[in-house]
């Protein structure tokens, strides 16, 4: 593993949220490096609303700084931007608050002894921060097809496309989670490297953990999904499955984003055999996954999901679960050990086959686990370390100014 470096990762969601690939990578890099995760910057509208409703005091406006992360990744530090440096507002205000954000972050890093870190940006929404720090290396991490997000207006899509091109130009290294993203964003670009998602396989082996309290007493079988609960999922399909099979319990665990799917989500959640559970800390996820009878990847097939590397698929397979998935490239690469389905009838048949006793025989469980045995986060960090070392050497050779 690369060691002795400093990393500053601009996160698209708070560190204390559902664990994703960035949490897995940064928590491991923190074992031999300094890592500061920058929580999402506050927005002016949110700050004003907090003041109006007295959820925020004037004295709290300038609170912020670096604190150790809570939970299983205490070696990571988390930086929270003071609310007085919020994003947004009219142009003169934006200029002032951007200066405050930049100076506040630089001051906090200097006090912590971090100079010229490896700066890591992960979405076009953080475009404005790309020159905020003197960087030893610049990394752009593409974990989704951001331009495929359903809630972007056409004007936003055009703006984000321009920002993404600028971020690719800015970066010394561009890391993508799927070959489809590599092809669509950087075909032939020597700065691009592939780093798919992975799994902490050891957490899904050994004696079965105690059944999580949230699942205790639920009727079997349990069909489970872990991840973002949003318009990305085929909620209409899930609703039809729950209606047609009241003896099946559907458990969806993760952050809920209601934009664009409010009616479908409410209808699904109202069913007596459906449970929506909040996200849990990353070290608790294996206990939930190992309690499922079948793992589901019920994506709608869209531009966004065709470019995804489904993290939960690796976790299901590491647990040895039967898996039923939508026909997206990230799932098709495991077609020899999972079932791919399109349409309600195909999903019903595949789930029924996964629930059959033959699906749990030791040979099939072993084959599923073997399919992801080499796809570990430790291995990914070693691969990433090679990419970083290569990019650092390339930048040193080029003599590029900071």
Question: In words, what does this structure look like?
Answer:
The protein has two domains: 6-198 and 377-398, Glycogen Phosphorylase B (Rossmann fold, 3-Layer(aba) Sandwich), CATH 3.40.50.2000; 201-371, Glycogen Phosphorylase B (Rossmann fold, 3-Layer(aba) Sandwich), CATH 3.40.50. The chain is built from 14 helices and 14 strands. It has helices at residues 21-29, 44-52, 91-111, 154-170, 179-186, 235-244, 262-269, 285-289, 303-306, 311-318, 329-332, 344-355, 362-371, 377-398, and strands at residues 6-10, 34-38, 65-68, 77-80, 118-121, 137-142, 173-176, 192-194, 222-226, 249-253, 274-277, 294-297, 323-326, 339-341. The strands form two sheets. It has an eight-stranded mixed β-sheet with strand order 3-4-2-1-5-6-7-8, sandwiched between helices. The chain has a six-stranded parallel β-sheet with strand order 11-10-9-12-13-14, sandwiched between helices. Strand 10, helix 7 and strand 11 form a beta-alpha-beta unit. Helix 1 (21-29) crosses helix 14 and helix 6 (235-244) runs parallel beside helix 7 (262-269). It is globular and about 60 Å long. The two termini are 25 Å apart. 41% of the residues are buried. The mean pLDDT is 93.
Describe what is shown at a glance.
The chain is built from 14 helices and 14 strands. The protein is α/β, with parallel strands linked by helices and about 400 residues long.
């Amino acid at each position: 593993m690369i060691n002795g470096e400093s990393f500053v990762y601009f996160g698209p969601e708070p560190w204390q949220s559902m664990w994703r690939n960035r949490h897995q990578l940064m928590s491991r890099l923190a074992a031999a490096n300094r890592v500061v995760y920058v929580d999402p910057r506050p927005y002016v509208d949110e700050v004003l609303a907090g003041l109006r409703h007295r959820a925020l005091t004037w004295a709290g406006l300038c609170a912020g700084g670096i604190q150790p992360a809570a939970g299983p990744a205490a070696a990571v530090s988390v930086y929270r931007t003071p609310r007085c440096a919020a994003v947004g507002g009219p142009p003169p205000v934006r200029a002032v608050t951007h200066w405050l954000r930049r100076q506040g972050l630089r001051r906090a890093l200097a006090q912590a002894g971090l100079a010229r870190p490896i700066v890591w940006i992960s979405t076009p929404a953080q475009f404005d921060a790309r020159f905020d720090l003197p960087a030893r290396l610049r990394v752009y991490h593409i974990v989704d097809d951001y331009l495929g997000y359903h809630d972007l207006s056409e004007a936003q899509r055009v703006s984000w496309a321009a920002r993404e091109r600028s971020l690719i130009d800015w970066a010394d290294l561009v890391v993508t989670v799927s070959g489809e993203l590599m092809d669509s964003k950087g075909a032939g670009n020597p700065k691009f490297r592939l780093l798919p998602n992975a799994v902490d396989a050891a957490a899904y082996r050994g004696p079965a953990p105690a059944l999580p309290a949230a699942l205790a007493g639920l009727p079997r079988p349990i069909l489970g999904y872990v991840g973002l609960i949003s318009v990305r999922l085929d909620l209409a399909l899930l609703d039809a499955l729950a209606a047609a099979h009241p003896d099946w319990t559907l458990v969806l665990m993760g952050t809920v984003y209601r934009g664009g799917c409010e009616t479908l989500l409410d209808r699904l959640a109202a069913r007596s055999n459906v449970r929506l559970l909040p996200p849990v800390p990353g070290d608790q996820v294996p206990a939930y996954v190992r309690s499922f009878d079948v793992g589901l990847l019920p994506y709608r097939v869209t531009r966004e999901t065709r470019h995804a590397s489904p993290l939960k698929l690796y976790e299901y397979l590491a647990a040895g679960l039967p898996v039923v998935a939508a026909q997206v490239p990230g799932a098709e690469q495991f077609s020899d050990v999972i079932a791919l389905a399109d349409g309600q009838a195909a999903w019903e048949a595949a789930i029924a086959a996964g629930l059959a006793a033959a699906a749990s025989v030791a040979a099939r469980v072993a084959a599923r686990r073997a399919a992801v045995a080499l796809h570990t986060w430790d291995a990914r960090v070693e691969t990433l370390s090679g990419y970083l070392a290569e990019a650092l050497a390339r930048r040193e050779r080029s003599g590029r100014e900071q």
